[in-house]
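Shipment paperwork, digital attachment
Item: protein structure file
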Amino acid sequence: MNSRFSVLIDLAIFQAAWFACVLATLSPFPHTLPLAGLALVLARVLQARRLKQVLPFLLACAILGILGDALVVKLGLLAFDPYPDLWGTPLWMVALWLNFGLMLHPLFSWFIDNYLRSMIGFSLGGLLAYYSGHKLGVLSLEKDWQSALAIATEWAAAGIVLRYLHIRFSLKEAT
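Attachment content:
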């Protein structure tokens, strides 16, 4: 399959899954939509035979997302509407982090190929995603610029960790 076409398919699937997760709480299917989005992304990863490659990133994103979002919630900087959660991180947000880990390499490799790009790009991208969620009414940035700074910091840290894993596992695969 053409590389550009493959990336377009990955992007379309990732965006569809993003909307399925983010808009789940506003839909009549609040528990089904995140699972459907995750299943769609997972099916694409399996079809592209990338599962083994993405497992470290899937696990890292699950941990980073659950702990990072839970911390920002506990600090009173971010709030979610009532929804089943893990330590304050709603399950739809956990599904979103899992989708990100599954699609990290095909869609965000340009960022994780460089330390500064990963830190700045993830920081700004994460902030934009959460701001979009805020505007859609699925989360609340409780303290304006302090919330924005916390989310940007969370995502910058995620960028650093994911860059480290990218280097570690890319070198391991090359040898």
